[in-house]
Write the structure tokens for this entry.
Amino acid sequence: MPERGFIGRWLTLLDNLNVSETDVFDHGEEVAFELAAIRSSLANLRTFPFVEKRMSEGLLVLHGLHFDIASGELNVLDKATGSFAALTEV
């Protein structure tokens, strides 16, 4: 029986993700799906009025990050290009 709480409903939003062909080519299908899920989650968060309000007030900034456990690489979503790149500076 599927979970019916907030998390279960949130995960159903991933059913029809648009996975980038470029991400599949660059990272493989699994990671491409993960990156698409991050983009989708950020877009969904922006639909909450309290999130949008804080963002417009400059009190909240959303970032997309993907951590590859195998390589230890942390990738960050570039808001301008919509692509992920390795985080090189902290």
Residues 29-45 form the longest helix (17 residues). Residues 6-86 form a domain with the Beta-carbonic Anhydrase; Chain A fold (CATH 3.40.1050.10).
